[in-house]
Design brief:
The structure is a single chain. With 456 residues, this protein is an alpha+beta fold. 27% of the residues lie in helices and 28% in strands. It contains 14 helices and 22 strands. It has a five-stranded antiparallel sheet with strand order 6-8-9-10-22. α5 packs parallel to α7.
Length: 456
């Protein structure tokens, strides 16, 4: 019967068979190669493998020409090397390509800090060193780029206030392994990022221990009300490496995170958070600072960046100066407070046609979410008696989801909300050019204690 099948298949024309095979996935093509000799030959037809090469390995015609290989051999070559990552590779490679293309235009010096991809052998050695398996999406990304050199600014975003600076480096896998945690509270967790100025790291849980879910990323947050130093709360930043990294890249390349002084600042602009009054437009973006926040006691620190712009089409007579600010603050438990004061961060900006004024300030709450809105009071330069108000749109500040360690009792105390409309001005402190060299032996556990004070 098999011989009859071979005979019949051998006599079928190639074109219709190739047409049918062109609709199959690469796995189905491989399966067809085991059916009989004729399908085995046809399944290796080079054009059939162009689509899988483009889909899974993002290869182009130029790549094939440069390699001097057929599409079939090119697919086979990549599969032998990266086959275990086939469900992740295209997504992560595209994310890295988009990020590098963006950085080349906006932050070119960051490109030089990226390290070449790690090898399978190097990743296997790291697993043996830490005694724990690395997730495949993490391994796949590190095959493309092994993090970055330990330089400032960090690839994973910065934040700056007048007396506080944070910039997170994406750690290479060797340095990350040196900071692999076995201590109680963050046991079996691998650092993903590190900030030299604050000692802050984001971690990834390699095992589901101490109430964490495997592969989720988080900022550790020591419980300052507990006597046990291993009582560590967690601000969750991602459910897996793939989500964590691609979400960040998307925020960068779409302009969600602004570029300020050649650094990526992790301010988030809420859609619709723009208000125009006459010739003046006000927009707001916000950011949560985990290194200055805590769950116990409840102290959530936010910074917000406000952009005030006068239309370039405004008449010269529209020139004005900001006199004061008014805020209405509503917390998640329904408490409303009002505050007003002169100027903004100690300044009284003059607005003329086409001028833009930006400033950063900050606030703290004892509830995990709240919103602010208000107005500025201006007077015309040509007529000081002409006073008017400019609306500040409502903007929300919400901390990331957080989780308490397993076994912690819920506090019975009810905390009331508080806020501070602090005049912390972004002084544009330059933190550039620092090169900390090769710190593969960095003692991450020791540096983790170098947290900035929780209350400024």
């Amino acid at each position: 019967m098999a011989a009859s099948s071979d005979f019949q298949m051998d006599h079928l024309p190639s074109d219709p068979l190739l047409h049918i095979l062109s609709y199959l996935s690469f796995r189905d093509l491989v399966h067809c190669s085991f059916v009989n000799r004729r399908l085995n030959e046809l399944s290796k037809h080079s054009p059939l493998w162009k689509s899988p090469c483009c889909k899974h390995w993002l290869l182009t015609d130029a790549d094939r020409v440069q390699s001097s290989l057929s599409w079939y051999c090119l697919f086979k070559q990549h599969y032998l090397d990266l086959g275990r990552y086939i469900q992740y590779y295209a997504v992560l490679k595209r994310a890295w390509d988009q990020l590098k293309s963006f950085l080349q235009q906006r932050c070119p010096r960051m490109i030089a800090s990226l390290k070449e991809g790690a090898t399978e052998e190097e990743l296997n050695n790291i697993e043996a060193q830490i005694g724990c398996k690395l997730p495949d999406d993490y391994r796949c990304s590190y095959r493309i780029h092994n993090g970055q050199k330990l330089v400032i600014p960090g690839l994973m975003g910065s934040m700056s206030l007048s007396n506080h600076y944070r910039s997170e480096v994406l750690l290479d896998v060797e340095t990350a392994a040196g900071g692999f945690q076995q201590r109680k509270g963050v046991r079996r967790c691998l650092p993903l990022t590190f900030c030299f100025h604050t000692g802050l790291s984001q971690y990834m849980a390699l095992e589901p221990t101490e109430g964490r879910r495997i592969c989720e990323s988080f900022y550790p947050c020591p419980n300052q009300t507990a006597q046990d130093p291993s009582a560590i709360d967690m601000f969750i930043t991602g459910s897996c490496f793939l989500e964590w990294f691609t979400t960040y890249v998307n925020n960068v390349v779409t302009g969600e995170y602004p570029i300020i002084r050649d650094q990526i600042f992790r301010y988030v602009h809420e859609k619709g958070c723009v208000a125009t009054t006459g010739d003046i437009t006000v927009s707001v973006s916000t950011s949560f600072l985990p290194e200055l926040s805590s769950v116990h006691p409840p102290h959530f620190f936010f910074t917000y960046r406000i952009r005030i712009e006068m239309s370039s089409s405004a008449s010269p007579e529209a020139a004005c100066q900001l006199d004061s600010r008014y805020w209405k603050i509503t917390t998640s438990d329904g408490i409303v407070d009002e505050v007003q004061g002169p100027g903004v961060v100690g300044e009284f900006p003059i607005m003329t046609p086409g001028k833009v004024h930006e400033y950063a300030s900050c606030t703290t709450f004892s509830t995990p979410s709240e919103y602010m809105e208000g107005h500025y009071t201006f007077h015309r330069l040509a007529n000081k008696e002409e006073v008017f108000q400019v609306a500040i749109p409502r903007f929300h500040m919400v901390c990331p989801p957080y989780r308490e360690p397993v076994g912690r009792l819920k506090p019975s105390t009810s905390f009331t909300s508080r806020y501070e409309d602090e005049d912390f001005c972004d002084k544009d402190d330059e933190k550039d050019g620092d090169n900390f060299g090769n710190l593969r032996g960095i003692n991450m556990a020791a540096l983790e204690g170098a947290w900035c004070p929780r209350h400024i």
